[in-house]
Amino acid sequence: MEITAEDLKFCILFDESSNWKLNTVTEKTASGVELLHIILHTETPAIPPKIEIKWEIPNLDIQTRWSPVITFNKFIPADWSSPLTSNLASSAPVMSFLNIHGENRMTFAVSEAMRPVQFAGGVNEEQNLISCKVILFSQPESPLTEYKTTIRIDRRNIYFADSIRDVSDWFAGFKEYTPAEVPAQALEPIYSTWYSYHQNLFEKELEAECALASEAGLSGIIVDDGWQTDDNNRGYAFCGDWKIAKRRFPDMKTHVRKIHDLGMKYLMWYSVPFMGYKSENYGRFKGKYLFNIDRMQASVLDPRFPEVREYLINIYETAIKEWDLDGFKLDFIDSFRFDGADPAVAEDYAGRDIKSLPLAVNRLLSDVMKQLKAIKPEILIEFRQSYIGPAIRKYGNIFRAADCPADILTNRVRTIDLRLFSGNTAVHSDMLEWNMNETAETAALQILNVIFSVPQISIRFAELPDDHKKMLRFWLDFTRKHKEVLLKGKFMPYHPEANYPVVSAENQQEKVIAVYQSGIAVKAAADSGNLFIINAGNDSEMILDFEKAPSAVMIYNTFGELVNSPVLSAGLNKVEVPCSGLVQIKF
Questions:
Q1: Contact at 8 Å (CB) between 422 and 399?
Q2: Does residue 173 sit in the same domain as residue 44?
Q3: Domain assignment of residue 406, yes or no
Q4: Which stretches within 324-465 are classed as H helix?
Q5: Do 533 and 583 touch, CB atoms closer than 8 A?
Q6: What is the mean pLDDT of the chain?
């Protein structure tokens, strides 16, 4: 089947001999965005057929691409390369093609953000075109009678970041993807125990650590894996019962109260799908698993069983009520999947009140958020990449970059990509750690590379050198004082193909520019108001290009100490700025 909309020609492939009827409707919005609505219908419930939608555009002035979780793979592949895949718990069906100046050439998105979608765009060698495709129902799906989705194509000549933000807003406009409210606490720097302690957790140590973390400006703690087991082997054999390891936390309620007395919030980690082989409840859910993961010593629960959902929700409700928790880090929800065939098919879906796995996960997580908010309206729920799509914004108010220990470049790219697509959902960095023998200036690069997100810190404060403490206090204080512009201002990351060497955020009061590459001339317009330029390029010289001569220039080192107040002129200026330092400019 071929459909033409404007100058786009869509080719739609599916099994026309099936009982399914396919209809399409094309539409162009007032802003110039093109929509292709796809409607499937059958009289009696049936497994929907695989559908492939293809189209092409000229390969004109296109040099790179963007998608939510491809990180460094922003090259344009050949059209025969493997497609990307999204589903409720992994990424989102969005891809953008742009030129070297960051101008959008085509951004496409698919409104299906729960079920699996394969999507791709690449160069057709024979004709030098950008060939795109979207594949629906490539994986097992339960019987349906009707299905609708929309492909959105934006070819406006606008900045790519604006095009991606428009896609995020488009998704948020669907009733089934209405984002959760974001409490103010979600935008505050927080401590995490994972890199600093891993599973070796004890309440007295954490209480002492939190006292120091609170003094440094951290507003809460996420207690990661280890609180529920005395086993330190990094497996999941003891997950599922979610009982406190008494040797580690003899009195959890009192322990949480002590952290609260420091003015800090308390969040705990749970691996949602896993039931460990050595857990007390493993036998209870026999026959209600999707598959086994022997290397993790755990099985994955099937949320299509109502008793599985009830059990998991009760676990979190009980934890809040008994321990007065403030939130949860809900992990591994991407493990709600099939490892081969759907085991329910052979059982004719016996005992399952929802046949579709994505819809069952959606029901589970929706009920979790609804019932926890009824207990604590300001509940904090964190999910990590790559479960950061439009559906996940309904259940969580914190998205964290995927694990990249001590890797400043990956953390920078991931947090920026998350910021572009996450709307007002709080974006957190992966936990920051560094070697205690680093210079304070080099250690500061960890926080400067994620300055446009909420930093999570995972170092042992008691072991920090004094100069590291001073550095960290200054930059955490900076993130708090300038939170409105850093996290809510107009966000402009430049050159995704070069891993965002310059990033800015501005509002009516101020502007912050972070420079991550040496030798770049930073342009400073006279209407920038109170301007801050961060030297994160690990070089002690910056090139500043002023539209007019500033009235005041103040240069600070990484400890927040004023080191110089030079008089600078309009045009290009070479300026000595300490590594990991800051320039404040007023016009």
A1: yes
A2: yes
A3: no
A4: 343-346, 357-375, 408-421, 440-448
A5: yes
A6: 96
